[in-house]
Write a structure and sequence with these properties.
The protein is an alpha/beta fold and about 300 residues long. It has twelve helices and five strands. Helices cover about 45% and strands about 10% of the residues. It has a five-stranded parallel sheet with strand order 2-3-4-1-5. It binds adenosine-5'-diphosphate and magnesium ion.
Length: about 300
């Protein structure tokens, strides 16, 4: 029997690390062994270091791949968000959302506010938190989503496409209201929303108030049906501030740009009894449309 020498043991370890596909531990092995020989660390510390390094390499790779699959346009973080610039925004509320309980509860988070106030940044940052926590995330702008669904419908694959979009435990739909939805688009979006209703969480961002959804989706009936589902288990966060993009140039802007009052346009006039007072439930914030929405 061949005696087990220290060097053949190291060869064994090397062989096992290759077999186990642990490239980072393999790369670090020689330096770690040297540090043991020099008495800088003991065996347990060495094992701990090698495994921790390997794990963090795997974690980073997983996150990178999951971020790519989530199709985030850019990576933004909560740490990179300057809450002092947006005093209307309750930092604690956003940090509570970062705990991701809303995903388990299949809730809908609405981020409302004028352009440049950080809606997409916050939606992306929450999506990044979800990816880090191992959740499947998908990010898409509403206009692109409608194109995707319309194409699937034409090709007879709408069911599969909706099923695919239901697999993500968090679906972010960005930029509701920037462009009018193409005819039939509201209907397609409704089918997706209905399929995810009470099953999967969503984050929606919009620069328009709920009262304007009839215009955005080209039909008050579709808008009401959408809002019925999207406001049932919902958190509405309204940002009322100025654009971060234009922060260095505010002196050159007209007053209505600086005060940023786009979202709070008045709801359409109604005949009959005056509308009841709108709720300001602390969880839901103030809604620019009666809640629950009229049927
Ligand atoms: P919106 O979606 O509301 O139009 P964005 O989230 O795209 O605005 O923000 C515009 C740009 O300004 C982005 O680059 C974003 O990262 C940045 N930004 C917005 N608000 C903040 C903030 N409070 N702190 C740091 N960066 C911000
Ligand atoms: Mg945006």
């Amino acid at each position: 029997m061949t005696p087990v020498t220290p060097s053949s043991r190291v060869d064994n370890i090397r062989h096992s690390l290759v077999g186990l596909k642990m490239p980072r531990a393999l790369e670090m092995l020689d330096a770690t062994l040297r540090r043991i020989e020099q008495g800088q660390i003991d065996g347990i510390e060495a094992l701990d270091e090698l495994l921790t390094e390997e794990l963090s390499l795997r974690e980073n790779r997983r996150i990178k791949a999951a971020l790519r699959m989530a199709r985030l346009p850019v990576v933004k973080t909560l740490a990179g968000f300057d809450f002092t610039f947006q005093p209307s925004l309750d930092r604690n509320r956003i940090m509570a959302l970062a705990g991701l309980d809303f995903i388990a509860r299949a809730e809908v988070i609405h981020l409302l506010g004028p352009p440049g106030t950080g809606k997409s940044h916050l939606a992306t940052a929450l999506a990044v938190e979800a990816v880090r926590a191992g959740r499947l995330v998908y990010f898409i702008a509403l206009a692109d989503l409608v194109v995707l669904l319309a194409k699937a419908e034409r090709e007879g694959t709408l069911r599969e496409r909706i099923r695919f979009l239901c697999r993500a435990s968090l679906l972010v739909v960005d930029e509701i209201g920037y462009l009018p939805v193409t005819p039939g688009g509201g209907n397609l979006f409704f089918q997706l929303v209905n399929a995810r209703y009470e099953k999967g969480a969503m984050i929606l961002t919009s620069n328009r108030g709920f009262a304007e959804w009839g215009d955005i989706f080209g039909s008050p009936v579709v808008a009401t049906a959408l809002l019925d589902r999207l406001l049932h288990h919902a958190v509405v966060i309204q940002i009322e501030g100025s654009s971060y993009r234009m922060r260095e140039h505010t002196a050159f802007l007209p007053e209505n740009f600086r005060t940023n009052t786009v979202v709070n346009s008045p709801p359409p006039k109604r005949r009959g009894r005056p509308p009841t007072k709108q709720p300001t439930d602390p969880q839901y914030g103030s809604l620019s449309m009666p809640y629950p929405p009229p049927t």
